Amino acid sequence: MEKPKISILLIDDDEDEYIIVKDLFAEISNNYEIHWVSSFDTGLKEIMKDDYDVCLLDFRLGPHTGIDLLKEAAVNSCTMPIVFLTGQGDRETDITAMKTGASDYLDKGRMDANTLERTVRYCLERKKAAERIKSLAYYDQLTLLPNRTLFLDRLKLAFLTARRYNRMLSLLYLDIDNFKRINDSLGHIAGDELIKEVAERLMKYIRISDSICRTETDTAINTIARMGGDEFTIILSEIKEIENASRVADRILHLLSSPMVINSISINVTVSIGISIFPLDADTIDTLIKNADLAMYNAKALGKNNFQYFNPEMNASAVKRLILESEIQEALQNDHFILYYQPIINVKTKKIVIIEALVRWIHPEKGLISPRDFISLAEENGLILPLSDVIFQIVGKFYDKTGRNYPDIKMAVNISPKQLNDVHFIESVEMILKQYLLPPGYLIFEITENCIISDMKKTITLVHKLKQLGIQISMDDFGAGYTSFNHLKQIPFDYIKIHHSYIATIPENPGDNAITSGIINIGQSFNLKVIAEGVETESQVKFLESKKCDMIQGFYFYHPMPEDKLNEVLKSKEE
Ligand code: C2E
Ligand code: MG
Ligand code: MG
Predict the structure, then answer these.
(1) Which of 125, 315, 467, 569 has the smallest count of CB within 10 Å of its CB?
(2) Which of 518, 527, 457, 508 minimizes the C-alpha distance to 483?
(3) H/E/C letters for each residue in 533-548?
(4) C-alpha gyration radius of the chain
(5) pLDDT tens for residues 30-68?
């Protein structure tokens, strides 16, 4: 393999000097790459990039001097070795330069290939030594993880950022269970091996979480550190939900649960984890650490191999969520998700024009569970993707069996933001269209504003792709969140559904009356069909009729119903 070139940054306002320096380096070998900049400002910018091995800096730089630049570099914690170039006999400047942070100085008058080569080599060696010292000071030499010092540094940074931006931050404190016993019985070398294996598995977790978990839980893990002995810490910055910390803890317990082979002996290693949350549990870094540590001791006291929040209330809710999560997984395997269907009526003809598919979970013990109790969790942990595949399959089968007999009735399916962000989304839609020969225009995708806000550009592209596949798009729950009429302009929707909270108080509430008729007018002026959702009373129907709303959905006409009931309804309409 070719040796990487040594890159030199030359900051000098005189081009002749550049040519001389370049020639001198060429004389030494062709192993140098010279990058020349002539001004103070670009010089500083390049220095701060820290892309070069060594910098050669001239004294004279237009209205500034090289000393000014050295000062700026020092203020900005520049670590690149800088060699100061001066004129003959200018000793005082040389000394000032060295005091200001230069690694060395060179007298331009006496500079030849040899002195230049020696100086650069010296700088590179010093840089290597400095890096080694830094590594000793900040990294644990056994595991190569950040040590306590670097951990405290990073925690401080994460803490300040969390406080400034009103974010949550979580600290996990890990301790290997029964480590002393392992160490005493197998010896220190085996103990070290075990710690290394734990560290490696934790690092592997970071790598996985960077690509998977981060999108699942929106939790950025920025530091795993070894605090010393058998203790590790994990900083989770930017946690959106407190429960995300327990999800990470749970995965770590799982990751460490397979046996470790040390000295040809298989050992089952477990850890206890304590979790503290800023700002819930602590308002200083010290208490955050102390409380995570206390929670860890609590986990030990409760039988080890588990995690505990510092705040006891959190434990109950975390356990509940983890149980629910594994139950969703089971339900997916056992086909316990079904669809209920709720018709949408054309206001003028009173005919059913759309059927909305609404998922239900048939729980073996708890009975029918509403999507409101599991969709958001499934979105957080990524299970919404396999769940949505199941929903698509049921929708396809429904068309095959029933839908095809009612060509004037479309099927609306709710789409979650996670699906829109999934790189395989379009592919899976195409597959379902093909598999069940769904005609263009049969499917309507209902998306909410959450889907749009995260990435407008991406949403627009995706919606266009879906429309090319013959899928219509409906904006669900319009008015519920950060509604922007701008969205109507930018995204080619076919329908908007007015959020039921406005419908609930019409016609008594003049404000909601005005909003509802406003949405109807604006929607229709964009050539969209407007659907009112959550319609429960006759007076609401009358009001919507008078405002020329296009379609209505709600308990007044139909509740969501299982497939056999829907079949009866559809059949009765035929007669
Ligand atoms: P949504 O899409 O806005 O669905 C309308 C919800 O309002 C349904 O609740 C429906 O049962 C309820 N509803 C309909 N008419 C009335 C009425 O007259 N009065 C009242 N009070 N409520 C009415 P459901 O089925 O519990 O679904 C709740 C939400 O869960 C849905 O809101 C949707 O956001 C989500 N969801 C449901 N199924 C799916 C699905 O298959 N995939 C995804 N990603 N989300 C789904
Ligand atoms: Mg909907
Ligand atoms: Mg809705």
Answers:
(1) 125
(2) 518
(3) CCCCCHHHHHHHHHCC
(4) 33
(5) 899 999 999 999 999 998 888 899 999 998 888 888 999
Provide the pLDDT for residue 211: 44
pTM exceeds 0.70: no
Give the whole-angstrom CA distance, residue 109 versus residue 86: 8
In sign, the C-alpha dihedral spanning 374, 376, 379, 385 is: positive
Structure-model confidence comparison of residues 235 and 75, the more confident one = 235
Work out the angle between the directed axes of helices 66-75 and 91-100 (0-180°, nearest 10): 10
Residue 279, preceding bond cis, omega within 30 degrees?
yes
Of 210, 168, 167, 161, the C-alpha closest to 314 is 168
CA 446 – ligand 1 centroid, Å: 11
Element (H, E) at 86: strand 82-86
Quick: pLDDT tens for 450-478. Answer: 777 667 888 899 999 999 999 999 999 98
DSSP 303: T
The tokens of 252 are what?
């770590």
Residue with tokens 């203020």: 75
- 3-state DSSP percent of the chain in helix, strand and coil, to 5: 50, 20, 25
Ligand positioned closest to the Cα atom of 531: 3
Strands (E), 347-471: 352-363, 367-369, 410-414, 443-447
- For residue 213, the 8-state DSSP code is I
Distance between CA 515 and CA 504 in Å, rounded?
12
Q: What is the pLDDT of residues 394-450, one digit of tens each?
A: 999 999 999 999 999 999 999 998 898 888 999 999 999 999 999 999 999 999 887
What would the mean pLDDT of 308-324 be, rounded to a whole number? 84
pLDDT at 220 over 70: no
> Which residues are bridge partners to 221 per DSSP?
236
* Domains of the chain from N-terminus onward: 6-137 (3.40.50.2300), 148-310 (3.30.70.270), 336-574 (3.20.20.450)
Instruction: Count the helices and strands in the chain (H runs, E runs).
Output: 23, 23
Q: Which residues line ligand 1 (CB under 6 A)?
A: 342, 357-359, 370-372, 375, 391, 414, 416, 446, 476-477, 500, 533-536, 553-555, 560
Distance from the CA of 413 to the center of ligand 2, in angstroms? 7
Higher local confidence (pLDDT), 518 or 92? 518
Q: Which pLDDT tens digit goes with each residue over 365-390?
A: 999 999 998 998 898 888 999 999 99
The CA distance from 109 to 192, in Å, is 56
- Which residues in 311-348 are b (16+ Cβ under 10 Å) and which e? beebbeebeebbebbebbeebbeeebbebbbbbbbebe
Smallest CA separation from ligand 1 atom 23, residue:
534
